[in-house]
Amino acid sequence: MKATRLLAVSVGCWAYAVSPASAQGEGFKPVGPEVKTTLTTWYTANTNALDAFLIRRVNIVVNGEVTPQLSYAIMFDPSKNLALPTVSASAPGGPFQVSSGGDTKILQDAYIGAKFPGGITTRFGQFRPPLSAAAMESGYKQPLARRPLFLEGNSFGYYRDVGFQANAPVLPWLSATVGVFNGATTNQPESNEAKDVIGRLEFSPGPQLKTGLSYLRGVRGTALTFAERLGANAEWNAGPMQLRAEALSGTDGTTNKLGWYGQGAYYLTPSLRTVLRYEEWDANLAAAGAQQNTTLGLNWYFSGFSLAGLNLIHENHTGPGAHTNDAALFIWQLVI
């Protein structure tokens, strides 16, 4: 019965999107496919880890429109197949070592989008769930090289999943998004009958201020591990200045987690931007140990989002095996 209802909804959306009425006349010609490529490379120098050249991303995005109401997007990242190095301590307080950290998830996004009367939009396929504001923003638009700590190197808040979501304006200053996903994360098959349900509200009370609230509830894996997330974010823009803050708390099984950051950015000139971020990530609130990072960044945008940048990062790891690390991260990014 559930499969029948889902099939009926999918067929109905498809029938509307490809119908002659939705094409706004017989003169419409499909748009695309358009291709955009992002290449981001790093050199990182560390006091307590190995220095290394890294390929951060090679995103190849193909998108287009079949009708004005029906669009598609596919994104690949061939660099995901590289055995990129990850730096970690061999034991608490022990020396740092480098191991292969490559994942083979070359396929990133693959979804069909549809538009309906009243400003309603839908997505069906694999994409980033509407959970974290920083996670939903494309990597090449991030003002710092690394995403916030609670999104880096884990599936707590930053991942892709297969599912369906719908977005609709509720009021001129309020929109709502609801999504249903497998809950299996990127390129993973479903392993249980349950689904993740995500809701997100976005408020825009004025041209300068944007805020959001999100909630996720589901189970993971064959063990049916309980998963819950609660997030909040705010962004204020005033001329060359931007202030951002976000927090994401959650539970995986019996483990409670919390991450948050505060960030300020300022354009010194139309092409030169400085950024400062402080953040904390605690992967287990019941256990000793957390991480705090302070990052100072300077970006020179020489063509759109193509840039040369420098990030200075101070890492403070508390708890067993407490240590610090200072890093200088040099970034070259081309968006074509």
N-end to C-end Cα span: 46 Å
SS-based structural class?
mainly beta
| Portion in beta strands | over 45%
Query: Architecture of the domain at 119-335, according to CATH?
Result: Beta Barrel
Order of helices and strands: HEEEEEEEHEEEEEEEEEEE
Mean pLDDT, all residues: 86
The Rg value, from CA coordinates, equals 21 Å
The unreliable regions are: 1-11, 20-25, 86-102
What is the CATH first-level class name of the domain at 119-335? Mainly Beta
According to CATH, what is the topology of the domain at 119-335?
A: Porin
List keywords for this structure.
single chain, mainly beta, Porin, 16-stranded antiparallel beta barrel, 2 helices, 6% helix, disordered N terminus
Structure description:
The chain has 336 residues and is mainly beta. The protein has a domain of 217 residues: Porin (Beta Barrel). It is 6% helix and 58% strand. The chain has two helices and 18 strands. A 16-stranded antiparallel beta barrel has the order 1-2-3-6-7-8-9-10-11-12-13-14-15-16-17-18. Strands 4-5 form a two-stranded antiparallel ribbon. Strand 12 and strand 13 form a beta hairpin. The longest helix is centred in the first third of the chain and has 17 residues. The radius of gyration is 21 Å and the shape is globular. The relative contact order is 0.13. The N terminus is likely disordered.
Secondary structure blueprint with pairings:
Layout: H1 2-18, E1 31-46, E2 52-67, E3 70-76, E4 85-89, E5 96-100, E6 107-116, E7 120-127, H2 133-136, E8 161-171, E9 174-181, E10 196-203, E11 209-220, E12 225-238, E13 241-252, E14 255-269, E15 272-282, E16 291-303, E17 306-317, E18 323-335
Antiparallel strand pairs: 1-2, 1-18, 2-3, 3-6, 4-5, 6-7, 7-8, 8-9, 9-10, 10-11, 11-12, 12-13, 13-14, 14-15, 15-16, 16-17, 17-18
